[in-house]
Amino acid sequence: MALRSILIADDEEPIRHVLTVLLAEQGYFVRSVKDGDDALRELAARDYDALVTDVRMPGMDGLSLVRAVGQQAPETTVIVMSAYGSHDLALEAMKAGAYDYLGKPFRPDEVLLVLRKAEERERLRAENRRLRREIEASRGAGAIVAESAAMKEVLRTAQKVAPAKTTVLISGESGTGKELIARALHEMSPRAERPFVAVNCGAIPEKLIESELFGHAKGAFTGAVSAKRGLFEEADGGTLLLDEIADLPLHLQASLLRVLQEGEVRRVGDARTIRVDVRVLAATHQDLAQAVAGGSFREDLFYRLNVVGLRLPPLRERTDEIEALARRFLDRHASRLGVPAKPLSSDALRLLLSWRWPGNVRELENALERALVLSEGEEIGPEALPDELRPSRPPGGPPQPPEEGELSVKKAQRALEAELIRKALERTGGNRTRAADLLELSPRALLYKIREYGIGE
Ligand SMILES: Nc1ncnc2c1ncn2[C@@H]1O[C@H](COP(=O)(O)OP(=O)(O)OP(=O)(O)O)[C@@H](O)[C@H]1O
Ligand SMILES: [Mg+2]
């Protein structure tokens, strides 16, 4: 971020002349004016990256000018020049927001040095702004990879409902990104600056959930030595995520419904009610409608929570996302671990695409973090991925017929068996039971040999 345009303000013509020539020679766009009023007029007319101004001028002096620039053109870097006897004024100007000062008389290289320093600071400020933007993008919706049609739809709905206070029920298998979506809903809402509180209803002992959620009065029960605010109060003005909501005991489902309807909580052992303004999100890996049918979840609460439902599909149903997710995780963990990011080899990608990912996105993320640490080459190869991703294969590949002149009965037998099994599977269109019949093998034995010989991979 180079400074390119510079305005000079000085009542002495020779100074204006010297600086204009010097800076124009260095490629800066330069204009000069004779006092503070003219400088402000010029700054209003166009943007300057820097202002180099004398502190003592007739009319508006440098100090007042620095203050006015701070108001009118805060992005402009100000450098003040002070002659012998005006150092105090220069210091005042620095306190008022000038970035640096030049003592008069100055040599050309001193002027250039001060400008370089200002440029360096400007570069750091720009870098800082860029990092800030990146951090913001890594929160909220920017953190979510959505390549598949299903995830794009989820994000679209999330963007639509985020600004309102609507309760949202987020469902999906473990590791599909339920908490990530909940955070994004919060970040995209007007509540973003207020707290986001997440509580796992399945992880708190049943006896404690009520006081966790709603707080308790002093002496409400043994051990309640002082009054305590509940999570609803903690989340006041913000968002409360009730994770694993299906694990909430029935009697507390009734209390929760009341809080949602009335917007008030009552601490355990306290008669007063406290108004809270909380947006509630709920998440579950279970099928809540089924829990309702089975009687373990209140139907009225289900409808109250499920005003909008977001279902996150398991990763195996959105394989078109795997590559983008993998890239994102490799970059993220590389920068976190302070190691260079590596690309995925095509063999490794093939393994990622064919695995069923029971632990969904979290499992993928863990696999790649591990791969990044383990891999030694230029790229991430299949050997760095967890064993379970690799189809079991006999060491050395499928059996080969004996070489010319080789007399191994065992080798010939294995090769023949593999060949016959392949043919039988071909003839039965892959039907293993019928193939086993043709081969006069038990289905178990056939399955074993198929695995051992790596057939059909
Ligand atoms: N679409 C996505 N883009 C980027 N990262 C994702 C995505 N989905 C999930 N993740 C990451 O995967 C990990 C697991 O996600 P999260 O904790 O939100 O899942 P969850 O559904 O709440 O899981 P659980 O049911 O086990 O609590 C997190 O590190 C999250 O950042
Ligand atoms: Mg979760």
List the helices and strands and how they pair.
Layout: E1 5-9, H1 13-25, E2 29-33, H2 36-45, E3 50-54, H3 62-72, E4 77-82, H4 87-95, E5 100-103, H5 108-138, H6 149-161, E6 168-172, H7 178-187, E7 196-200, H8 206-214, E8 215-216, E9 228-229, H9 231-234, E10 239-243, H10 250-262, E11 264-265, E12 274-275, E13 279-284, H11 288-293, H12 299-305, E14 308-312, H13 322-337, H14 346-354, H15 360-374, H16 409-427, H17 432-439, H18 443-453
Parallel strand pairs: 1-2, 1-3, 3-4, 4-5, 6-13, 6-14, 7-10, 10-13
Antiparallel strand pairs: 8-9, 11-12
Helix pairs in contact: 2-3, 3-4, 13-15, 16-17, 17-18
Let me know the average pLDDT: 90
Rg from alpha-carbon coordinates: 35 Å
Alpha-carbon distance between the two ends:
55 Å
What is the helical fraction, as a range of percent? Answer: 40-55%
> How many strand elements?
14
Strand content: 5-15%
Spatial strand arrangement across the major sheet? 2-1-3-4-5
Point out poorly predicted stretches.
none
Shape estimate:
flat
Task: Write out the distinct hetero groups bound to the structure.
Answer: adenosine-5'-triphosphate, magnesium ion
| SS summary, helix count | 18
User: SS-based structural class?
Assistant: alpha/beta
